[in-house]
Amino acid sequence: QRVLVQAAGSAPKGAQMQQISVPRVQQAPPQVQSVQHVYPSQVQYVEGGDAAYTNGTIRATYSYNTESQIYAPSSAASYFEAQGGGAQVTTATSSPTAIPSHNMVGITMDIGGSPVVSGSGTYLIHGGMENTRHSLSHTSRSSPATLEMAIENLQKSEGITSHKSSLLNSHLQWLLDNYETAEGVSLPRSSLYNHYLRHCQEHKLDPVNAASFGKLIRSVFMGLRTRRLGTRGNSKYHYYGIRLKPESPLNRLQEDTQYMAMRQQPIHQKQRYRPAQKMDGMAETAANSNPHTTPEQSVAAQSQHHQQFIDVTHVFPEFPAPDLGNVLLREGVTMNDVKTLQILYRRHCEATLDVVMNLQFHYIEKLWQSFWNPKTPSSDGSAVLPPSDEEHEGSLPKDKLISLCKYEPILKWMRSCDHILYQALVEILIPDVLRPVPSTLTQAIRNFAKSLEGWLMNAMSEFPPHVVQTKVGVVSAFAQTLRRYTSLNHLAQAARAVLQNTSQINQMLSDLNRVDFANVQEQASWVCQCEEGMVQKLEQDFKLTLQQQSSLDQWANWLDNVVTQVLKHHEGSPSFPKAARQFLLKWSFYSSMVIRDLTLRSAASFGSFHLIRLLYDEYMFYLVEHRVAQATGETP
User: Fold this and answer.
1) Residues 508, 416 share a domain
2) Residue 117: pLDDT above 70?
3) What are phi and psi of 359, to 5 degrees?
4) What's the CATH code of the domain at 251?
5) 133-159 pLDDT, tens per residue?
């Protein structure tokens, strides 16, 4: 039964509010019937100066309109609809302390009126709704009824079967646990979907496609808007009005969000290059003054956020002194010029390090132009960067710099300094080749590597060819290392998804057990001449590690132990580099024999094995390369 309760003593809220006509009590049944379509479940309303509204299990979709009144109280009464015996009336005081304390989630809607604070099913309305602008903040997790309503809407619109309701519920709850709405911020649409795919992989869930995921988001966060942000030709779709919760664990894994720059400051060493400081200051000032992000601010914000994925604590090693030997200086070059070159080149390399550490790759071209070809505009027509204060302490004319570079000891010294610099840059940009990094950062590093040779050749266009060839040879090796390591990182992320899939791992193990390893060993023994016991041990360890469904980091430890075990007998001997090369050849030959057997058997997991093989071969080369560099003191 439904009971209509009339409570007296409520004053009108405003002249413009709609007056509700009150029928007699005996006419309550038809009136209740009409209300039933609006509030199908238990709802209690109290009108007073400040009123608390107890929310039952309402299953309805809420919307708001900034141009119309949300509430329409009668002139002298408030009404309650309850199920089973009556309604309890509770009047809240005007004290703001009546707001219950809950964890803030921060859904903000821009409406004209006072704050409506929600906590655990209770709504508190302060004063009128018609005067000043306030924010609507949702301070608790959505109720189960909200999730059920969203699922029902998706089932009707998408034809989703009811047995997937629990799966949808987990997806929706994950969204509510990690995201919140907020005005003035945005998130790339691809980032949200990547977070969702990672969640499904970690919990062994079947993900929905990107289009269905977009409908999931909109079913939870009403009124979400889409914007296309970024520079021309490189723009991406963003959800505007949503952000990660501060306490969400996804903050550590987040890919390319822009709002993080508002909270984070870059952690870096003392700045030695003024333009980098100026750019950071401009980006910070603009970000604080205007909540709407421009493309330039997006780049700065993205760079600041990406700094958490690089090693900004790296210590730049000292440079060796040039060994001039018995070389006679000529063409007006003195020892003071050599010392000046040492100081200026060290500062130039430190400035390069600072620019890269701030991920401002576009400054490198201008930096090289200012050192090798001063007072010359860069290729894009922009002005040359002004030197730092320290560079005014000494300078070298361009003709004297060219004369110094013609000396072979000076050129050899520069090459060794470049090796130290570029090795430091590699360790800064890619401190761990297996660690997940944003795709935008990876692509920025690859674009940077692609441009290096052209920038340097353009800056040194007036230098002797053999000097340019020496410098370009070192920077080409640096660019190739960046390309290799970013490719290895991309392979690692693809393989990580395979290694987290239980069904794929079981299929791989089943297919691997069908491989005739005795035949593989028989064919490979003549070529590789490996110990049969070592090969059998590697086979058993590989199968055991696969059976244990080890993570990518555990596989990396296993590969590192294999390298250590194979090369430990050659450590400290001149034959170490040769033994390392032979091991790589034998490893590659054995793995190709296994892949061939899987191919001939039409193994269902051939694609997974091919991906794993590519990663392990590349990572094995990476490990051996570092071992040889440590043993010999130079890059192979």
Assistant:
1) no
2) no
3) 60, 35
4) 1.10.10.10
5) 333 333 334 445 555 666 666 666 555
Using CA atoms, how far apart are residues 510 and 514, in angstroms rounded to an integer?
7
Q: 508 and 617: one domain?
A: yes
Q: What integer pLDDT is reported at residue 147 of this predicted model? A: 58
Q: Is 290 exposed, middle or buried (0-12, 13-18, 19+ CB in 10 A)?
A: exposed
Asked whether residue 266 is domain-assigned, the answer is no
H helices of 460-516, in order, are 465-499, 502-513
pLDDT of 265 above 80: no
Surface-to-core class of residue 246, CB atoms within 10 Å of its CB (0-12 exposed, 13-18 middle, 19+ buried)? exposed
H or E element that contains 557: helix 552-567
Q: Which amino acid is at 621?
A: F
Report the relative pairing of strands 77-83 and 2-8 from DSSP bridges: antiparallel
Residue 341, in any domain of the structure? yes
pLDDT of residue 379: 45
- Strands 236-244 and 225-229 turn out to be antiparallel
pTM over 0.85: no
Instruction: Report the alpha-carbon distance of residue 97 to residue 482 in Å, rounded.
Output: 58
Angstrom distance (rounded) from CA 48 to CA 77: 10
Confidence grade of residue 491 (pLDDT, cut at 50, 70, 90): very high
Give the C-alpha separation, 148 to 61, whole Å. 11
Here the contacts of 292-300 (C-beta below 8 Å, separation 24 or greater) are: 292/184, 293/186, 293/229, 293/258, 295/229, 295/230, 295/231, 295/235, 297/258, 298/229, 298/230, 298/258, 299/231, 300/261
Calpha distance 238→295 (Å, rounded)? 13
pLDDT in tens, 279-295: 333 333 334 444 444 44
Angle subtended at Cα 421 by Cα 416 and Cα 427, rounded to the nearest 5 degrees? 125
- Report the DSSP pairing between strands 107-112 and 50-55: unpaired
- Split into its structural domains, the chain has a count of 4
**Which residue carries 């209740």 as its tokens?**
32
CB-CB contact of 541 with 565 (8 Å): no
Position 287 in a domain:
no
Interval 313-349: pLDDT, tens? 778 889 998 888 776 777 678 888 899 999 999 999 9
